[in-house]
Each structure stands twice: as structure tokens, then as C-alpha cells.
Amino acid sequence: MKDDIKEILFNAEEIDAKVTEIANKLNDCYKGQEVVMVGVLKGCLPFYIDLARKVNFPVRFDFICASSYGSGTESSGNLKISKDLSAPIENKNVLIIEDILDSGNTLSKLYDNFSKRNPKSLRMCCFLDKPSRRVSEINVDFIGFSIPDEFVVGYGLDYAERFRELPYIGILKPEIYQNN
Ligand code: IMP
Ligand code: MG
What we know:
Blueprint: E1 5-10, H1 12-30, E2 35-41, H2 45-52, E3 59-69, E4 75-83, E5 93-101, H3 105-115, E6 121-129, E7 142-146, E8 152-153, E9 169-172, H4 174-178
Helix pairs in contact: 1-2
This protein binds inosinic acid and magnesium ion.
Inosinic acid binds at residues 43, 67-69, 75, 98-106, 151-153, 157.
């Protein structure tokens, strides 16, 4: 597995410290109010669970399965919702949790979709950001690390459903996706 990784960007300790930093910002923002954390499956999962255990306000869990990606490395621009929320978000504080912000297509479309459901507040939290690849204009409230334009895997992030389980975030060797 490690043979497929060109370089480790963030190890488990660095990830943990950043999640704590984000949790502290969320605590300041919500100050004890209940929040519906909406995870964008499946890439959000490790970040979502780590974050939920570090915040000090009451949380409701919900998930949506949505992406603008096929199995390749480029955004298709279309949002596909294959599993929607399990409960209405009207009048709730909603925080969308995503693994990575790339073109911005996924989050900007989700934001518009959720806005129409009349939440009390709607914010977004993304563990990684690749600002150089932005296509859709978007203002994400909480961001972990900004990274260069490289394809990364681990800590929930996949290439064709592989590598999600890695406890670190690494740059995938280009030959792995160029040969497929
Ligand atoms: P966007 O719609 O282009 O912002 O892409 C967001 C989604 O693309 C993320 O939820 C990821 O699933 C996927 N993605 C973007 N960049 C990467 C990457 O470097 N590694 C793995 N998945 C990525
Ligand atoms: Mg994804």
C-alpha cells in the first residue's frame, strides 16, 4: 500500500491536532447550541467521527451521499444525491462536513440545495482545501489544511474506493491513476 504513496502530507498526530483546532473554533461559533452535522459520504467519515467526539455542543448525526465525481480524478460538475438526509433540517443549525474542497462544485450545489430547506443556520466545514482548482465560487466557514494541486488519499479520501482506511493523508503516485 505504501508503495502507492509518493509522500505523506499529514500524519495521524498532525491530523489530530488540526481536528482539535477546528473543534475549538466550532465550540466558539455554536456555544452550546444543537447542531445537525451532515456528513458527505463516504470521504467525510474519519474526520466526521473525530470532530464529533471533540466538540462540546449537542450534535445530531445525519449523512448525505452526494458527489460530483465518478471514479476518476476530475469533477464532472453534476451533483448526484444517491442518499438524502434522514430528517428535515428546517429551523436547525446545519453544519456540512466534507473531506476536501476541490473545484467547489459539490459543496456549492449542496449549499444551494440545503438553503432551500430553510435551516436556521448553514455552515460548511472541510478538512482539506485545494484552492488552485476552484471553479465554483464558495465561502467555506471552517477549513483544516490548504494543500497543493496533487491527488491525495487516506483519512477517508479515496482513489476508485481504495486507500480510505489509511490513518494519514498522502499524495498518490501519478502512475497509479494514469495507468487506469
Ligand atoms: P469538488 O466538487 O471538485 O470540490 O470535489 C469534491 C470531492 O472530490 C471530494 O468530496 C472528493 O470526493 C473528491 N476529491 C477532490 N480532490 C480529491 C483528492 O485529491 N483525493 C480524493 N478525492 C478528491
Ligand atoms: Mg468524496
